[in-house]
Specification:
The protein is mostly helical and about 425 residues long. The protein has a domain of about 140 residues. Helix content is about 75%, strand content about 0%. The chain contains five helices and two strands; from the N terminus they run ααββααα. Strands 1-2 form a two-stranded antiparallel sheet. The two termini are about 10 Å apart.
Length: about 425
């Protein structure tokens, strides 16, 4: 509470005593006996200058001149002291919003500055309120002291000043009541303004917290969608690479299998051709041997006809030799056939071995491609899991940041609540 006025003791009154209009004795001896007394009064300093109470009119014509002269020569009180308490300035109605730092919540420096500003305003308001209350206590103490002085100094000298003293006491009480009412109004205005400011600050803080939470949720959703899209793209890329590797491996396996089959076919064809050639050569040798045998038989027959007696033994020998050569030729033909069959079987065995080796190599290539594709897929999955772990770490960091901001807002609310409680 505040006040702009104060009470003080006026200077001494003039020697002349003003008669009371309600039956005060105005005879000469009484007047002369009271003329030398000095009287002190209790003036008040109102908000607007209050003129001194006019001198009472004398009840008899014989004293009108003296009382008028005393009233006109009465000095104006100059000893009043006006001590005014500083009136607190109202708190600003509009509170600027706290700046928001992207991906970090409120700016800590701005929050600290706002808290320091509120603490400074609270300190100033508390000081103003304390000064106003102290001023009211001082005024009440002065009023009590003046009343005590009036009670202690009751004597006949106050008979002529009863109306004026009563009026001044009444003015002092009215002034004290006005001071108390003004202080109460100021305190109520300060409390109302503080409550409005606290409500506005709480609303701004809640709105800014909601906005920050929405921004963080939107950023987290965008990050999650982006990370999921990247993971899906990586999975698709890994799947495409695995399919490419598998297709390339299959093509290589088909090429190896085709090359092995072609080589096997070539070996088999070569073996068959060599066997046919060996069989044809054996047939030619047999036919040649038979033809030679026939020719030799004819020659021997002719010679036998000429030399029958001499050549019978020779003929038998030649026939035996021819038969032996024929048998040897047939044996060579059989051996050539057997060798051709052996070559054919060996070529077939080699071709089957080549086919088996080609199949094994193709299976190994396919298995390696499958393993590589699985490794690529697992690598893509591990990368997606690492990215998901990074997203979760980012979410945890944002959650901790939100909790820190909530704690700061809670501290700010506690400061405002303490400010309101102190004011009330």
């Amino acid at each position: 509470m505040s006040s702009d006025q104060g009470l003080s003791i006026f200077d001494e009154e003039p020697d002349a005593e003003e008669p009371d209009s309600e039956g005060v004795d105005t005879e000469g001896p009484a007047t002369s006996s009271n003329a030398g007394e000095k009287t002190q009064v209790m003036p008040t300093v109102p908000k607007e200058p209050v003129a001194s109470a006019p001198a009472a009119q004398a009840s008899s014509p014989s004293t009108s001149t003296s009382t008028s002269t005393a009233a006109s020569t009465a000095p104006t009180p100059t000893g009043a002291t006006a001590v005014s308490a500083s009136r607190p300035s109202p708190v600003a109605g509009a509170v600027a919003a706290l700046p928001i730092v992207r991906r970090g919540g409120y700016d800590k420096a701005a929050v600290d500055q706002r808290i320091n500003q509120l603490a400074s305003e609270k300190s100033g308001l508390s000081s103003s309120l304390s000064a106003s209350e102290q001023r009211v206590l001082e005024l009440e103490s002065q009023l009590t002291s003046l009343r005590a002085e009036l009670d202690e100094n009751k004597n006949p000298s106050y008979a002529g000043l009863g109306g004026r003293a009563t009026s001044m006491l009444k003015l002092a009480e009215e002034e004290a009541a006005d001071v108390r009412e003004a202080a109460a109004r100021d305190a109520e205005e300060i409390r109302s303004q503080a409550a409005r400011d606290a409500k506005a600050m709480r609303a701004d803080a809640a709105r800014e917290a909601d906005d920050m939470r929405l921004v963080q949720l939107q950023e987290l959703e965008e990050t999650r969608a982006r990370m999921l899209a990247d993971a899906e793209q990586d999975r698709n890329l890994a799947r495409s690479e695995a399919e490419d590797v598998l297709a390339s491996s299959r093509r290589e396996a088909d090429q190896v299998r085709l090359a092995a089959q072609q080589e096997s076919n070539e070996l088999l064809t070569t073996a068959r051709r060599e066997a046919e050639q060996a069989r044809a050569a054996a047939d030619r040798e047999v036919q040649e041997a038979r033809r030679t045998l026939a020719v030799e038989k004819e020659r021997l027959a002719r010679e036998a006809a000429d030399h029958h007696s001499n050549a019978t033994a020779e003929t038998q020998r030649l026939v035996q030799e021819a038969e032996e050569r024929a048998t040897a030729a047939e044996q060579r033909a059989r051996e050539a056939t057997t060798q051709a069959n052996t070559h054919r079987q060996q070529a077939q065995t080699e071709s089957e071995a080549l086919l088996s080796r080609a199949r094994r190599e193709a299976e190994q290539i396919v298995a390696s491609a499958t393993t590589q594709a699985d490794s690529i897929a697992v690598s893509g999955t591990a990368e997606a899991e690492r990215e998901l772990a990074a997203i979760r770490a980012e979410v945890d960091r944002m959650t901790k940041r939100r909790d820190a901001v909530a704690a700061q807002l809670g501290a700010l609310r506690d400061v405002v609540a303490g400010f309101v409680e102190d004011e009330s």
